[in-house]
TrEMBL record:
Keyword Transport recorded: yes
InterPro entries: Bact_solute-bd_prot1, SBP, TAT_signal
Annotated keywords: Periplasm, Signal, Transport
Protein name: ABC transporter substrate-binding protein
PANTHER family from the UniProt entry: ABC TRANSPORTER PERIPLASMIC-BINDING PROTEIN YCJN-RELATED, ARABINOSE-BINDING PROTEIN-RELATED
Keyword Signal: yes
Organism for this UniProt entry: Bosea massiliensis
Protein family (similarity comment): Belongs to the bacterial solute-binding protein 1 family.
Localization annotation: Periplasm
Alphabetized Pfam families for the sequence: SBP_bac_8
Superkingdom to which the source organism belongs: Bacteria
PROSITE patterns hit by this protein: TAT
Main localization of the protein described in the UniProt heading: periplasm
Length: 441
């Protein structure tokens, strides 16, 4: 088990958390009353270990810790929280599932529960309780949370990733806004390069940003890795068009994107070297909360936009789901369920959502009206992330095979190998096809 860590370079909106802090006798009494009335009763003597993705927004971290403290005060269940990088979450969860030992709860990414669905506690009762109370789940949450009719995870939130850009720099390049179509978007990136204020998107194995970019490239050109019957269809004229478009974009990028991880674009944008990328709201949150005048200047000069629409003619983005799953080897499955339900109750979830400052988007419809989406117009685009997102495995099923293909970075590697010249378009597609056929056999 690793010690808790935090990505110190990215500062959150620390002041937001104070508005909804779980402190004071009133909130403590509410939490205790909840524990008494809740249908989810922890086992006697229960204690939980929870592993989560590493924090990007400090205020979210602080508010989450207050939720944990309130749960312990109300139930007596001690919760030990550790964190790992995006890239380490899925491998560690897989090892725990295979060995039958590890944290009681993994709060992981994307389709991780579908890698080992039989090792996940059935949490259908938690999902039904929350869905009925809070206006139902958005479709993408059901896709990630359910296997057949059984819920194997609770999709606590979606991290929306959209276009982050410097307003002054796209204007200097001759554009008043980020184009809404892929053809115009390429022209913007060319113009930014000509001004020596380039764009950049990750072609390295970045679990969040790399997958988001690669699947958008693929799907926006009406291509997919499999069809509705899970037949591999990656080698197609549509995929070749996506590869050629990706190469045209890559030629406008700042140097080094083939080696980027999930922190690289944040760092370069905040250093002023990058004019446009795709990311969650964490770049804006960090710059806005900083005491550095240069960071404040970046925050004032940046905004967000949806992913451009490609030949497919509709939104084709994939957003980063954060499913929370209890493991069947846990001695305290009821305590796991109680924590999941407690966290998503409005009294906890609304302040936590505000503290995340737009970095996290809700998956229950009742939270559409949280003030975080309207108090700052630069946040609003992220409100729609959970309702616009497609799922891993599109057009086929979201299952263990789709989860494996994403975990193995097959689509990311296909684009990277072509854009960097390691493979021809035909070679890149053939390699991806062969890898997918081993999974979808």
């Amino acid at each position: 088990m690793t010690k808790p860590t935090r990505r110190s370079a990215l500062k959150g909106l620390a002041g937001v958390a104070g508005a909804g802090a779980l402190v004071g006798s009133g909130m403590t009494e509410w939490a205790k009353a909840w524990a008494q009335a809740s249908p989810f009763k922890p086992e006697a003597g229960a204690a939980l270990n929870l592993m989560r993705w590493r924090r990007f927004v400090v205020a979210e971290d602080e508010q989450f810790n207050k939720i944990v403290a309130a749960f312990t005060a109300a139930t007596g269940v001690r919760v030990t929280v550790t964190s790992e990088s995006f890239d380490d979450m899925q491998p560690k969860a897989s090892v725990a599932a295979n060995t039958g030992t590890g944290p009681d709860i993994f709060w992981s990414l994307y389709s991780t529960p579908h890698l080992f669905p039989n090792r996940c506690v059935d949490v259908s009762d938690v999902a039904d309780y929350l869905g009925k109370k809070y206006g139902g789940w958005v479709p993408v949450a059901e896709a990630y949370g359910k296997l057949g009719n059984k819920w194997i995870a609770i999709p606590a939130a979606i991290n929306g990733g959209y276009i982050n850009y410097r307003v002054s720099q796209i204007k200097a390049a001759g554009f008043n806004e980020v184009p809404k179509d892929t053809a115009g978007f390429l022209e913007l990136c060319k113009a930014l390069k000509a001004k020596n204020t380039p764009a950049g998107f990750p072609l390295g194995r970045a679990t969040g940003d790399g997958n988001s970019y690669a699947y958008w490239l693929l799907w926006s050109h009406n291509a997919a890795q499999v069809d509705e019957n899970s037949k591999v269809i990656i080698r197609s004229p549509e995929t070749e068009a996506a590869l050629n478009y990706a190469k045209s974009l890559y030629d406008t990028f700042i140097q080094g994107t083939a080696a980027w991880n999930d922190a690289s674009n944040n760092r370069l944008f905040l250093s002023g070297e990058l004019a446009l990328t795709a990311n969650g709201i964490s770049i804006y949150a960090a710059a806005n909360a900083s005491n550095d005048p240069k960071q404040k200047e970046i925050a004032a000069d940046m905004d967000h936009a949806y992913w451009p629409i490609g030949p497919a003619g509709r939104p084709t983005e994939i957003q980063l789901c954060f499913p929370m799953m209890a493991m069947t080897y846990s001695k305290f499955p009821n305590a796991c369920k109680a924590f999941m339900a407690f966290m998503l109750e409005a009294e906890q979830f609304n302040p936590w959502l505000e503290a995340a400052a737009g970095y996290l988007t809700h998956t229950l419809n009742a939270f559409d009206n949280n003030p975080v989406w309207t108090k700052d117009p630069k946040n609003t685009v992220f409100r729609d992330a959970s309702k616009r997102s497609l799922v891993a495995g599109y057009r086929g099923k979201l299952d263990e095979k789709a989860a494996t293909a994403m975990a193995d970075f097959i689509v990311v590697d296909m684009f990277a190998s072509f854009c960097t010249g390691r493979e021809t378009a035909a070679g890149a597609m053939q390699l991806a096809e062969r890898q997918l056929q081993r999974i979808y056999r």
